[in-house]
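Schema walk-through. Below, the input block comes first and the output block second. Nothing else is stored per chain. Lengths vary across the set, and this one has 587 residues.
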Amino acid sequence: MEERLKTFLQLVKILLGIILLQCVNLQVFHFSYYRRMSNQNCIRTIDLGIPRGKILDRNGRILAEDRTCFNLVYVPYDIKNSREVATTLSDIFGLDPNELLKQFDKPSSNPFERRILKRNLTQSEIATVSEYAFKLPGVFVQAGLDRQYTLKEGTCHVLGYIGEINQDELDAMKDEGLKPGHYIGRYGIEKQYDDFLRGKSGGYQIEVDAHGHQRKILREIAMIPGNNIVLTLDQSVQEACINALENRHGSIVVMDPRNGEILALVSNPSFDPSNVAKYLKPPYSERTPFLNRVIAGQYAPGSIFKIITEIAALETGEIGEHDRIECTGSMEVGDKIFHCWKEEGHGWLDINMALPFSCNIFFGTVGAKIGVEKILEYAKLFDFGKQTGIDLPGEKSGNLPSPDESGGAINLAIGQGALTVTPLQLCVMISSIANGGNLWRPYLVKKILAPDGKVIKEFQPFVKKTIFISDETLTVLKRGLRNVVRFGTGAGANVSGIEIAGKTGTAQIAQRELGLPTRGAFACYAPADSPNIAMVVFLDEGSSAQAARIAGSIIKKIYTSEETQSETTISETQEVQFLPSGSEGFE
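--- output ---
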C-alpha cells in the first residue's frame, strides 16, 4: 500500500512539473505570441487601402484619381459556417458559391484581417447586406478607395490600371507596408511610376466583441496620399484622337517635334481599366486589347520609309533632284515582277513628283542603285531597330534586319520585307525631319508633385542624337512632303489655312492572292513651316488615304474651333482597301 502511495505521489509531482513547465512556456517564452493573438481577437485594424496620387494632363485636368467607395469585406476568423454564408452571398450578389468557399477556406497568415469580396457596392446592395446581416456573421460593408479614370478606355494604354497584389509580390515588397487586398500599378503610367503614386495605407483601430461586432474606435490611422503626376498629354488632343479613330483597330500618336513631349496616345481595341477581368476572357481577349499598338505594334512601314530612301539617295549622290526615271507600272528584276500601286504607271518623273505620288518603280529603282547596306545604314541613323526610350513599360524595338535577311534593296526601299517599326518610331522619325535632324526621346511625364504641390522631380527633354542632313536634301524632302498633302496620296489630310506635310504608307497584312485588306498609315507634321505637332495614324485595316483623312480631322480640331464630325466620319465603302491579285507592289 505504501509503495502504491509513493508511486502516486511521484506521478502527481511529474504532472505538476509538466503543468508548471507549460505555464512557464506559455507565459514567458510564448507571451508575445498569445498577447498578439488576444489583441487581434478583440482589437482589429480596419485598413481603408492605399491612397494613390492623381494623374493630371499638362493643363492640370484630372485624368485619374481615387474616390470613396463601399466594399463587401469579410474576416476569416469570424466566419463559422462558411457554406451558409457562401449560399447567402450567392443569392444576394449572384457570386459563385464554390469560388466563395475556396476563398473562405484559403489559409491566412492573419485570420483577423479583413479581406475584400466585392468592390464598389451600389446603394441597393448595401441595403441588402444590412437586411441579411443576421445570416452573414463576419461579413461587413466597409468604406474604401476606387480608382476613377476620366476618359476610361480612352487613356487605358497610357495610364494603365491597378490590380490586387499577389503573394509573390507581397514577399518581394514585404518592407513597403503592403498587405493582401492592397492594389499596385499593373500597366502604363500606373505601373511605371507606382513607387511615386502609391501612398501609405490608413484606417481605424477598433475594439470588437466575441462576435466580431464593432464596439468602439480606439484610434484613427491617417492615410498618407501618394504623389501627383503631371503628364505631357493634352486631354483635348487625346479626345480629338479618340473621336477620330472611333472603333477602328489601330493607333494614333501625337508628339511635339520640338522637345519629344507626347501630346496624345491612343490604341484600339482598348479596355476598361475599372473592369480588367472582363477583357481577359473571350471574345474580348481575342482582340488583343492589352496590346499598346503605339509602342508594341510592329509593322512594315510601307511607303513612309521612302523618306529614308530619299535621304539616302540624295545624300549619297546616287540621284540628283531632277534626275528622272520612267514608271510604266511594273519592273522586272530577275524572275520577279514588281508593280507600282498605279497599274498604268506614272510615266517619267523626278523625286519632286515621285514622293508625292509615292511611285514604287521610282523608289525601287533608286533602292537598287543605293544598295541594301546603305539603306540600312540610314535607317539605323534614325534608330530603327531600337526602343525609343519612352517612359512606358512594354515597348518593342521593331526589327532592323541584316542585309541578307532584308528581302532585297527594292523591297526595303519601299518599306517592305523584313523591316518592322512601331508607330512611335515613325513619329520620332517624322519629328526629326520636322525639326531639322534632332532625334528626341519621347516622354509622357512632365513632373511629379508632392500632395502639397511641391515639385519632387521634373523631367527635361532629351536629344538622343542629331542626324546631319544637308540643307539641300532637307529642302527637297520637305517640299515633297508638303506636296504629298497638297496634291499627292495624302490629299485627304488637307485642312484649309493649315500647311501640313506628311507621307502615306500602305502595307499588306498577308498574301495578296488571298485578297486580304491592307494596313494604312500616315505620318505628318504641322504647320509645315514651323511645326509644333507631329503625328502618326496607323490603321490595322484600312487605306493610307483613310489614315490621312483621320489625321487631317485631328489637326483641324487642334487648330480650329470648328466641329469636325463630318471630317472624322469615313464612308463604309472606304473602310478597307484591297489590292489587285498577284500585285507585288503597293503604295
